[in-house]
Structures are given as C-alpha cells and as structure tokens.
Design goal:
185 residues
C-alpha cells in the first residue's frame, strides 16, 4: 500500500514538473516571438518613415504638405525607443500627416502620373501594409503571452521570472484615404 501511494505521489510530481516545464517553454517562446515581432515592427516603421521622407523631398507635393510630411517623418524616426508612448504618438502623427498629404484620390492620381511618384506611392502602400501586419503579429503575441502569464500555475510558480509584462503597441496605422481601398483585401 505504501509503495502505491509513493508511486502515485511520484507520478503526480512528475506530471506537475512536466506541465510546468512545458508552460515555461511556451512562455519563453512567446517572449522570443514578442522580441522578434517588435524588431520587425521597428524595421517596418523605419521603412515607412524613410519612404515618407523620400516622398516629402521629391518635389511632388506643395511646400506646405512636404514640410508637414518631412517634420512628422523626422519625429517618427528620432522618437526614443525608451518611451513607447512618445514613439507611438510620433508614429500616429506620421499617419495623420500621410493622410493629410494623400487625402484626395485626385491628388494621388496626379502623383501617380509621375513615374517616380508612382514608385514611391507603391513603396509607401507596401510599407503601410507591412506596418499593419507587423503590429498585428506583435499585439497577438502580447495577448497570448499575457493570457498565459495570467494563469494560476504561471503566477504561483513564477514561470515568467522577473520578465516585465509585455505591452501591446497602439498607434493609428490606417492607410491614407486618397490611396483608396487596398486590392489585397
């Protein structure tokens, strides 16, 4: 009888250790996915601001729109990585500047008549889509990680260690109105 109880207790602790190890591994993978997704989002945001700077300096827009776009793109590029809220605001401001510069489909059609303008607009559309996708991947990974870290076993056994709770990335990433509906959807 004692051997059966000891065997059952041993089996229980073995299953508990397996479950905790598996959960800790999932948390680790989610944290790595968050880090990779954040790097990908940073790259896409940098690409978007670079294209916006090129577009503003191309001479296609009137001076006021060019200045507004260049200023917003510069602030988005130089926003501090340490302060996510300020960087998010700067990226949302760039989105607003792009929307202001490319608000009307007629103006966009005029920009597309110039071959260099058409190429820059195509590159801008691609970077805007990639920013949306990268942000969605990051926020999905953050949501999954927060959900897993909210489970009792993860909290009670400190499976995440001292790792900070990941935060989602919130910004306005809607495409400019003048670009029209995307063909990919």
């Amino acid at each position: 009888m004692n051997a059966v109880i000891l065997w059952a207790i041993g089996l229980f602790f073995l299953l508990l250790a397996w479950y905790l190890s598996n959960t800790a591994g999932r948390l680790d993978r989610l944290h790595r996915k968050i880090d990779i997704s954040r790097l990908a989002l940073d790259a896409q945001l940098l690409r978007r601001s670079s294209v916006a700077l090129e577009l503003s300096s191309s001479g296609i827009f009137d001076p006021a729109a060019s200045m507004l776009l260049a200023d917003a793109a510069h602030h988005a590029r130089t926003a501090s990585d340490a302060d996510d809220a300020a960087r998010s605001r700067a990226e949302s401001d760039l989105t607003a500047a792009l929307d202001a510069a490319l608000q009307y489909p007629e103006d966009v059609a005029e920009v597309r008549r110039d071959p260099a303008g058409a190429e820059l607009l195509d590159e801008l559309e691609a970077s805007i889509r990639r920013v949306e996708i990268s942000r969605r991947f990051l926020n999905d990974a953050v949501r999954g990680c927060r959900q897993l870290r909210g489970q009792r076993a993860a909290r009670w056994f400190w499976l995440a260690g001292r790792t900070a709770l990941p935060q989602s990335w919130e910004m306005d990433d809607t495409p400019p109105q003048g670009l029209g509906p995307r063909s990919s959807q």
